[in-house]
Every structure is written in C-alpha cells, then in structure tokens.
Amino acid sequence: MNPPFPLSREDVDVYQRDGYVLPKFRLEGESLETLQRLTRKLVSDNPGVSGFRRPHLNDSGHVQSGEQHLGWLKIASLPRLVDAVEQLIGPDIILFTTTLFYKPPLEAATRWHRDGHCYPINPLATTTAWISVFDMTNKNAALRVIPGSHMCKRLEIDRASEEDGRLSLSEAEERAAIDVELQAGEMILFDVSTVHGSWPNRSFAPRAGYAIRFFPSTSHYDRSRANGLFRHQHLFLVRGLDRAGNILDGPLEIDNIIGGSAPLQNFDGQALTC
C-alpha cells in the first residue's frame, strides 16, 4: 500500500534547502512501459531530433498520433505525481509544458543553465518532474545539479548565450555539483532556479528524460510578454482552482484534449537545454 503522501517531511525540507529532491516513489509497471514505448516510437518516427517539445499536445510539429499525445498527457497528470507536486507548490496546480529530452550515443554535454529565463510567469515559480525513461548513469549523460543554487544569485549569466540561460560557474561552484544517476522510472523534482546540466553521453546507450513542468495557479501566465511558442501555450488546471486569472484550456479532461485543439504554431527554434 502506498503511503498517504509521496514525499516525506524530510523530502520537502531537502527540496526547500537544496532546490531538488530525489523521491522514493517511481514509475513502474504499465506506466513505465508506456513511457518507454512512447519514447522509442517518437524517436524512431523523428530521426535526428533530440528535443521534443510538448509531446502531450498535437501542435508540437513532430510526427505523432493522437493516441501517443494521450499517452504523454496521462503520464504528465498521474495522480501520484501531482500529489508530490502539491506537497511542493500547493494545492492549486497548472500543467505548463512537457519536453522529452533525448541524448543519443556520443552526444555532447549540456552546459550549466537555469530554466525559466523566458517563462512569462509572475511570480516565477515552477517545479519540474524529470523522469528517467531508461537507466541513466554518468556514462550516458547523467544530469548534474548545484545544491542550493536556487537561492544563490551570484552565478553569472554568460552574456554570449543569454538567450538560453547558460551560466558561467567558478571552479568552487562546479566542485559542488551532484551527479544524478537514476534507474528507469526514477525521477528528480527540481525548482525553476536550480542550476543544472548534464554529462556527455560517452556510451552506446541512449539517455532519455521526460520533463513535466508545473506552476502554482497563484502565479499569472502573462501572454503579453511571452515570445514565440510561449505566447500560445496551452495551460491545464490539473488540481484545485485558478487563483490568478490565467487563460486556461480548462480543467484537464483528457478525452477532450486529443484531437480537439486546432494546431498552433510549431517549435520556433528556442534552445532545448536539459
């Protein structure tokens, strides 16, 4: 029997202190099998692509069927996952976006960065659930995080790469990095301001992670200052009430989403960096 809450009190304290937590619960059984099947299918149908923005919608610009969209969306709204997010950001929760990050064998490293540099969310508050689709180790591009960096503003943005939020770290800051090795179905939950990157994939095994981003509905999604794809973002209330006058696609009703939304503009070239 599952405990009443996915995260312990200690887990919540760790998240608040370090900006991330590795929960004990994981995707297993049918949910994990579905995630792996969807990943293999999306990658095989879109050769040469490594970042798949918004696979849970029908406007991503990638080759994908309606049934696949539904599968991604069901995973993003799993009650147990939303339960954990509620413990971190409160009971009123909006599903903001999803991305499948895929690193094929021998893919380069991902530089240090923070998410949220172009999110039109005020106040800026999001939590990402990054689920490992397959086993992830240092050899096949494990994530790396800087504990406590969500509270530290002294990390400097690399001005040459400001558009994608890349950062320049000192040697001392980089030595503080933690490698996140995960088995298939395990995940990391991290704050929007937590600095992270990844090792290169130095193996012949692919690495894939499904990133699901949520924000509390007490924040407002300001489309008037959004650029590109973010201006047309679908927002779904997955729990509670909207508290900030957000323009929503409505409460999350999966059967009405797939095939029911007119395609919007495709991915506009913004960098995918996780």
Q: Any chance you could write out the topology, listing elements then pairs?
A:
Layout: H1 9-18, E1 20-21, H2 29-45, E2 51-53, H3 66-76, H4 79-89, E3 93-103, E4 110-113, E5 121-122, E6 127-132, E7 143-145, E8 156-157, E9 167-168, H5 171-175, E10 178-180, E11 187-191, E12 196-198, E13 207-216, E14 220-221, E15 236-239, H6 254-257
Antiparallel strand pairs: 1-11, 2-3, 3-13, 3-15, 4-12, 5-14, 6-11, 6-13, 7-10, 7-12, 8-9
Helix pairs in contact: 2-3
Q: What can be said about this structure in brief?
A:
With 274 residues, the chain is α+β, with helices and mostly antiparallel strands. 21% of the residues lie in helices and 23% in strands.
Description:
The protein contains six helices and 15 strands. By secondary structure, it is an alpha+beta fold. It has one domain: Sandwich (Jelly Rolls). Helix 2 packs across helix 3.
Helix content: 10-25%
Helices and strands, in order, run as HEHEHHEEEEEEEHEEEEEEH
Please give the domain count. Answer: 1
As for the CATH topology, it is Jelly Rolls
CATH 2nd-level architecture: Sandwich
Strand content: 15-25%
Whole-Å distance between the termini? 34 Å
- Per CATH, the class reads Mainly Beta
What is the tally of helical segments? Answer: 6
Shape: globular
Radius of gyration: 18 Å
- Judged by helices, strands and strand pairing, the structural class is alpha+beta
CATH level-4 homologous superfamily: q2cbj1_9rhob like domain
Give the uncertain stretches in residue-range form.
257-274
Biggest pleated sheet: 7 strands, antiparallel
Give the number of DSSP strands.
Answer: 15
